[in-house]
Structures are given as structure tokens and as C-alpha cells.
Automatic annotation (TrEMBL):
It comes from Saccharomonospora piscinae. It comes from the Bacteria. Gene3D superfamilies: NAD(P)-binding Rossmann-like Domain (3.40.50.720). This is Epimerase. GO terms for molecular function: biliverdin reductase [NAD(P)H] activity; riboflavin reductase (NADPH) activity. It holds the Pfam family NAD_binding_10. Residues 7-197 form the NAD(P)-binding domain. The lineage of its organism: Bacteria, Bacillati, Actinomycetota, Actinomycetes, Pseudonocardiales. InterPro entries: NAD(P)-bd_dom, NAD(P)-bd_dom_sf, Polyketide_Oxido-like.
Amino acid sequence: MDITIFGATGGTGRHLVEQAVEHDHTVTAVVRDPARMPLSHRNLTVLTADVADPAALRPAIAGRDAVLSALAASSKRGDIAATAVRAILRARDSVRRFVVVSAAPVGPVPAGESLLGRALLTPVVRAVFRDVYADLAAMESHVRDSDTDWTIMRPPRLLDTPLTGNYRRALGQGVPGGHSVSRADLAHAMLASLDDPATVRQVVGIAS
């Protein structure tokens, strides 16, 4: 596929770019600082653009088969995730496939979650990172309201551990008892979802 990746220099984004070019996808990586992109590859084009400006994003998206966003929300950067997704949706033209990263605490506690997770861990995490999750919830709302073939990935705590390919998914909810997953495995799941019709217009929980 010919794909565009946002958040390409972040923890998950770098894995997305690396795995995508390894699997012969043609990748356009949209970045703020090209010096932070360590990878060079014949299938990779790096573009610098303001992710809040739809006009600046159109050349990066036009004619692509899919768009993936690994942009992370941050309490220090306001509503960056929601703002960027709004701009991407305005810039996308005819591109339909859209895969974004959110976070497990944005959704309800999954059926089968332990009492500890339901009564203590999830409420504490939501309280500590409430601004981040508010941004991600707004982002999800924009995605759901779009006419794209969207997939929203909701991982729990992300780890800088190697790719295993051994992770669990749950359509429409979080993964019960799933409290972490590697960024490399999250990237793997995002790329795998591109041609998986079961994930279209679905929230997908993922965890180790």
C-alpha cells in the first residue's frame, strides 16, 4: 500500500515506519523535525508539515491508500490529538482507510476485568491523565463522525520492548486483564488492520 504516517518520529510511529517499509509499503512520514527521523529507505519519503493545517497536509495525503496516526496526546500540548485529526480529516480528500491510536482508559472497563483493575487501577489512571484522555476522547469523536473506514486502536500502557507478534485483540472493547503492550506490537497490529475488514469502523483493544 501507499500510506501516510503521522507521529512518525514518536515511540510507536518509528516502529510503524520501520515495519511498513520492511513489508514493502510506500510510506510518507509527516514530521515536525526531520532530524528526528533516524530511518532512511527507498520506500520512505519524509515531509515536514504543521499537523494543525489541512492545506499543509493535503500533499502528504493525496492519492494514498491509507492514513495512520500515532500522534500522542500530551497535557503539555493541549488538544493536539483532536486538532491534528480534525486537520487530517479535512485534508484527506478521497482517502478512506484511517487508523488511529487512542488509549484503553478512554473506553469503558472491559467485561471480565479484575476487581483490582475495575475498582482501583483504571480510576486512578483516568484521574491522573484526565486531560490526555479528554483530548483522545474528542479525537475519537471526530473519527467516529467521519465517513472514513476508521479503526481506533486502544492500547494500555506502552512499553519499549521488542516485537513479539504475540498479543491479544478485542473488537469493540478493551482486553480484560491487559495492562501493557509493546509499541512494536501496537504498530504491528495497526498495519495488520489495514486489510482486515473486521476492524473497519471498530474500536480495537490490544494488549499482551
